[in-house]
């Protein structure tokens, strides 16, 4: 078929020997399986009375951030993912299997830090929060955050929305699984040594995942140090 006869809707469809005139929005069906369905309508190219129309459709079958945790095709065994199709006038769906064995899972994790505004007085407390987010497409597993408290501070408390933590100066948070498009929040309170000179208090937190590998692990910015 002549590529010159193709019609492209960016990132979704390529059509040979025809033109798509309308694509409906997705409808999500939930039951024993989760399905998303859409309707495509169009016309054949002018010319001979009968011709084959080829539609190439790219869909995100593997992504947890569209299907939910462990529901993406990358979590399925063998060729258990299915794509169903039904042509106008037909009463039943046909299907073909998708084998996700070659899909590479990814979890893009990031971390941000917020703190109460300074300057702060010596001997007072400083509260700050770490928010770990996952942009997907898959969940981050065995997610950990390390946060080494700067000299001149003492841990008052540390709480997290999920998981556990250990340490008093070198904090290690084990957050478990952070789902795609989800987040986990850590709240830390430290006291400031009254004998330390004024200046900028620098604190760095690092997020990482046991699997899948994340090439874009985030690092936070410095915290403000109180002025005397």
Q: Determine and state the CATH class of the largest domain.
A: Mainly Beta
CATH-defined topology of the largest domain: Immunoglobulin-like
User: What is the straight-line distance between the termini?
Assistant: 77 Å
CATH architecture of the largest domain: Sandwich
The structural class is mainly beta
H-E order: EEEEEEEHEEEEEEEEEE
- Number of continuous helical runs: 1
Overall spatial form: elongated
Helix residue percentage? under 10%
- SS elements, strand count: 17
Largest sheet: 4 strands, antiparallel
Describe this structure in words.
There is one protein chain. This protein has one helix spanning 64-67; strands spanning 6-9, 13-16, 18-23, 27-30, 34-37, 40-44, 54-57, 81-85, 94-98, 107-115, 125-137, 140-148, 153-160, 164-166, 170-178, 183-192, 205-208. With 228 residues, the protein is an all-beta fold. A hairpin with a 3-residue loop joins strand 4 and strand 5. The chain has two domains: 3-102, no CATH class; 107-208, Immunoglobulin-like (Sandwich). It has one helix and 17 strands. The longest helix has 4 residues, at 64-67.
Give structural attributes.
228 residues, mainly beta, Immunoglobulin-like, 2 domains, four-stranded antiparallel sheet, 1 helix, 17 strands, disordered N terminus
């Amino acid at each position: 078929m002549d590529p010159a006869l193709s019609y492209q809707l960016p990132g979704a469809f390529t059509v040979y020997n025809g033109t798509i005139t309308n694509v409906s929005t997705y409808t999500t069906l939930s039951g024993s399986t989760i399905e998303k369905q859409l309707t495509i309508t169009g016309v054949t190219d002018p010319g001979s009375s009968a011709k084959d129309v080829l539609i190439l459709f790219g869909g995100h079958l593997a992504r947890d951030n569209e299907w939910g945790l462990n529901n993406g095709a990358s979590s399925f065994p063998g060729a258990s993912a299915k794509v169903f199709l039904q042509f106008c006038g037909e009463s039943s769906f046909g299907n073909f299997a998708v084998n996700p064995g070659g899909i590479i899972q990814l979890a893009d994790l990031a971390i941000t830090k917020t703190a109460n505004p300074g300057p702060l007085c010596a001997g007072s407390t400083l509260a700050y929060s770490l928010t770990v987010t996952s942009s997907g497409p898959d969940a981050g597993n065995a997610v950990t955050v390390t946060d080494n408290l700067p000299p001149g501070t003492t841990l008052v408390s540390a709480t997290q929305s999920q998981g556990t933590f250990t340490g008093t100066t070198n904090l290690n948070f084990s957050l478990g699984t952070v789902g795609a498009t989800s987040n986990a929040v850590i709240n830390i309170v430290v006291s400031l040594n009254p004998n330390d000179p004024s200046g900028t208090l620098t604190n760095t937190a690092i997020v990482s995942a046991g699997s899948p590998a994340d090439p874009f692990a985030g690092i936070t910015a410095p915290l403000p140090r109180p002025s005397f």
